C-alpha cells in the first residue's frame, strides 16, 4: 500500500474531492523518508541560484527506497509534491531525486538529466538491483 490513509480522509475522498493540502499531509505522514528527500531538494533549490538541486544518497534501507519508489512512481503523489513545493521532480536509479525550477523544464540541464543518455551515464553495478 502506498499511503496510510486516515479513516476521515478516506471518507472525505469517498464523498468528493479532497484538498491538496490534506492529500500532501497524508503523503508526508505516510512516506516520511520520501518527504524528507523531496523537501530537502526543494529547499536546496530555493536557496541556490542553480536550475536544479539533487539528492543522490542511497537510502539507508529497502523500506526507504520503497518510499521513494512509491512517491515518485505515482502520478498523483508526484504531482501533489510538485505542486506543494513548486518544482518539477525528476528521478533516476531508484534513489537520485532532483528538483528543477519550473522555468528550467525543457532546458538543457533538464533534458540531460531526464534523457536516456543521462540514465545510462548514472548506472553502476552497485545500483543494478535497486
Summed up, what is this model?
The protein has 130 residues and is mainly α.
Question: Can you walk me through this structure?
Answer:
With 130 residues, the protein is mainly α. The protein has one domain. Helix content is 55%, strand content 11%. The chain has seven helices and three strands, in the order αααβααββαα. The chain has a three-stranded antiparallel β-sheet, with helices on both faces. A hairpin with a 3-residue loop joins β2 and β3. The longest helix is centred in the first third of the chain and has 15 residues. It is globular. The two termini are 19 Å apart. The relative contact order is 0.14. Pfam families: KH_NucS_shadow.
List the helices and strands and how they pair.
Blueprint: H1 7-15, H2 20-30, H3 32-46, E1 52-55, H4 62-73, H5 75-85, E2 88-92, E3 96-100, H6 108-114, H7 116-121
Antiparallel strand pairs: 1-3, 2-3
Pfam families: KH_NucS_shadow
Spell out the key features of this protein.
11% strand, three-stranded antiparallel sheet, 3 strands, globular, 130 residues, mainly alpha
Instruction: Sketch the major β-sheet.
Output: 3 strands, antiparallel
Please estimate the helix content.
40-55%
- Beta strand %: 5-15%
Number of strand segments: 3
Strand order of the largest sheet: 1-3-2
Mean pLDDT: 90
How would you classify the helix and strand content by structural class?
A: mainly alpha
Instruction: Give the count of helical stretches.
Output: 7
Principal-axes geometry comes out as globular
Q: N-to-C terminal Cα separation, in Å?
A: 19 Å
* Total number of distinct structural domains: 1
Sequence stretches where pLDDT stays below 50 over 5 or more residues: none
Task: Give the C-alpha Rg.
Answer: 15 Å
Order of helices and strands: HHHEHHEEHH
Pfam family, one: KH_NucS_shadow
Amino acid at each position: 500500500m502506498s499511503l496510510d490513509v486516515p479513516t476521515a480522509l478516506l471518507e472525505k475522498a469517498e464523498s468528493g474531492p479532497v484538498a491538496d493540502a490534506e492529500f500532501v499531509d497524508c503523503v508526508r505522514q505516510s512516506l516520511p523518508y520520501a518527504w524528507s528527500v523531496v523537501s530537502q531538494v526543494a529547499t536546496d533549490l530555493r536557496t541556490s541560484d542553480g536550475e536544479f538541486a539533487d539528492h543522490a544518497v542511497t537510502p539507508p534501507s529497502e523500506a526507504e527506497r520503497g518510499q521513494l519508489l512509491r512517491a515518485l512512481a505515482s502520478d498523483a503523489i508526484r504531482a501533489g509534491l510538485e505542486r506543494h513545493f513548486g518544482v518539477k521532480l525528476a528521478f533516476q536509479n531508484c534513489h537520485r531525486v532532483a528538483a528543477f525550477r519550473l522555468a528550467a523544464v525543457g532546458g538543457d540541464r533538464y533534458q540531460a538529466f531526464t534523457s536516456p543518455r543521462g540514465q545510462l551515464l548514472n548506472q553502476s553495478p552497485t545500483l543494478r538491483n535497486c
